[in-house]
């Protein structure tokens, strides 16, 4: 049943209070009215990862025009997926970890780095699943991409501060799709997620088939965190829409379970 927690709570929660680990700085776009959930779905996933690993962190908000100069000043690399297409581009999230002096960009790389650097915390990108997790996350962003023109107008007007709204190009807050075109987008998004969840059921490589997690492991992985980073946003805007309700019910309600369980295990706790 969606929302029913069938997993153990993070084993390191109590370490946080007595931790002397210096705070990692996570760069996200803002300011927004999302509060502790942050703006970028990728950065939101990293918050879930830091929460899950009980690593202390602070958020540093940048605006769209200040992503690149801030990243360059810190020494963060352009995002590899854009680099591969020969279009160097700087994106959030990126992090600075004062414990190691490392600066990293790209959410999957950050998630893997946290595993490597803090191996005593629960792993979220186990090496044997890294490729599958990476492919899953790429699919999540490409399946979701057609929703952007529909989701952004509401997001910009309702959730972005006026300071942040000004950094968006004129017209970014207007959906130019007809209602019929929007229905088609939803159909493609629902079909995309249906295919993806089926594929990951068939080829599941986890060891706990009754667990809701994407990889069917005993614990959540980066795949659940990134998926919930996206779905939290989509659900918050479209919770009452037919398309969202279909997505939530995919796999007999498994998608809804992943969101609820990930939020319960890895959700907001930013005060440190
Ligand atoms: N592959 C990157 C994608 C990150 C990404 O696309 N971030 C968006 C915000 S959600 C961004 O910073 N966009 C700024 C831009 O494209 O100029 C990751 O996983 O971190």
Folded structure, characterized:
With 272 residues, the protein is an alpha+beta fold. 51% of the residues lie in helices and 7% in strands. It contains 12 helices and 4 strands, in the order H-E-H-E-H-H-E-E-H-H-H-H-H-H-H-H. The chain has helices at residues 15-18, 41-52, 64-74, 80-84, 107-117, 130-144, 148-159, 162-165, 179-202, 222-238, 242-248, 250-266; strands at residues 24-29, 57-62, 94-97, 102-105. The protein has a 4-stranded mixed beta sheet with strand order 2-1-3-4. A hairpin with a 4-residue loop joins strand 3 and strand 4 (102-105). The longest helix has 24 residues, at 179-202. It starts with 14 loop residues before the first helix and ends in a 6-residue tail after the last helix. Residues 1-18 have low confidence and may be disordered. Bound molecules: glutathione. Residues 40-42, 67, 79, 81, 89, 91-93, 106-108 line the site of glutathione. Glutathione (GSH) binds next to helix 2 and helix 5. InterPro entries: Glutathione_S-Trfase_N (IPR004045), GST_UstS-like_C (IPR054416), Thioredoxin-like_sf (IPR036249). Residues 30-122 form the GST N-terminal domain. It holds the Pfam family GST_C_7.
